[in-house]
Amino acid sequence: MPVFGMCYGFQAMVQALGGTVAHTGLGEYGSTQADVTDTGSTLFNGQPESQSVWMSHGDSVTEAPDGMRVTASTPGAPVAAFEDDDRRLYGVQWHPEVMHSTFGQRVLENFLRKGASLESEWTAGNVAEELVEQVRAQVGSDRVLCALSGGVDSAVAAAIVQRAVGDQLTCVHVDHGLLRAGEREQVESDFVDATGVDLIVYDAREQFLSALAGVTDPETKRKIIGREFIRAFEQAARDVVEDRGDDEHPVRWLVQGTLYPDVVESGGGEGAANIKSHHNVGGLPDDLQFQLVEPLRSLFKDEVRQVGLELDVPEAIVWRQPFPGPGLGIRIIGEVTADRLDILRRADAIAREELTAAGLDRDIWQCPVVLLADVRSVGVQGDGRTYGHPIVLRPVSSEDAMTADWSRVPYDVLATISGRITNEVREVNRVVLDVTSKPPGTIEWE
Ligand SMILES: Nc1ncnc2c1ncn2[C@@H]1O[C@H](COP(=O)(O)OP(=O)(O)OP(=O)(O)O)[C@@H](O)[C@H]1O
């Protein structure tokens, strides 16, 4: 069995194989310079002798186990990497998996390809095919239901299931009135055109608006949105069960866009109790008597996107930036009303359009546009004073949304966005830029 130890795993290998891990008092944390002493080794083949690596260790390996060839050292770790091709054992003291380790990906690749002799046979095409086969075997001739948000996860999951069992699948898209401009249409026409899926759009705009009337507290808003979402979805599910199911082919399965990181986060359990626990929209109730189909369980987001492209999911959906389930409802500070939603929707559409036109979509993780609806600021338009609302632009860059920095959007792009919003959305007379990182700020304002 080929083994690759990283960081503490590296030290655990040393302990197990008879080397020495010592408390030297010379810990290393963060970016560290490693001297590669053997650039012809399996892990470091062809790489520079000096490379930046990301460290996080207090103890150090002072003596390698017998038979190990030491291939790198750092100031605080005399033995910072080793390998033994005969036994197929490899290790590094640092974290090759983080991007701060400049050659980390190459090291991992060398271990997998050369050390473990694995072929690179992952292609979006054959993964898609395999997933389609699995779903087909799993659901047989039963009917399947999918809650489709318009986001990439549920869309790609639905596309796989659709490819597998065709019209046994019905998708439900809940229009809660908190969607952005064009989103419902994107699901309604683009996605359906591309996949031919059976789609029900459940119009719950009135239901959400009246439930949110007069509410300003952010937590209460989220709770109401979550609750109403469940109600709407349950109602839609009942309709599907009645309309589409029959005794021979009951609606038995619910598609979830669970990804591998979600599986890891939730401890890797199985079954209905495990319905996406971080579900922003509130979490589907356990008593929905469905079994889960989770075709994306073993994939990361970038892989999901590749599979999506392979299955002809529209690019606008595949590359869509993350968008919270409660939607524009948590981007209006203050009460959510139809008028305010309309203002925000128009401003948001302009910001998105201009960021796309500037080619910034893939550099920016997401750009919430926030309406400070309870604030009025003085302005001048034409020959009169105005008391409009400020709009906040919150473009952020991030790897994983755990931490984020504000994106340095070029000034001229910001100027265009600001100019267009204040001209085209009369109710807004001021555009401000949020320059806070996360932490301490969060990405969304509420
Ligand atoms: N408006 C909606 N209509 C139908 N289903 C929805 C809607 N909003 C969210 N969902 C369902 O809830 C799940 C979780 O929503 P969340 O906002 O957390 O998105 P997510 O985990 O990023 O997934 P996605 O990329 O599919 O939006 C979605 O995958 C989808 O199944």
UniProtKB/TrEMBL annotation:
EC number: 6.3.5.2
InterPro entries: Asn_synthase, Class_I_gatase-like, GATASE, GMP_synth_C, GMPS_ATP_PPase_dom, Rossmann-like_a/b/a_fold
Keyword set includes Cell cycle: no
CDD domains: GMP_synthase_C (cd01997)
Keywords: ATP-binding, Glutamine amidotransferase, GMP biosynthesis, Ligase, Nucleotide-binding, Purine biosynthesis
Gene: guaA
PROSITE patterns in the cross-refs: GATASE_TYPE_1, GMPS_ATP_PPASE
Name under which the protein is recorded: GMP synthase (glutamine-hydrolyzing)
Function description: Catalyzes the synthesis of GMP from XMP.
Plastid in keyword set: no
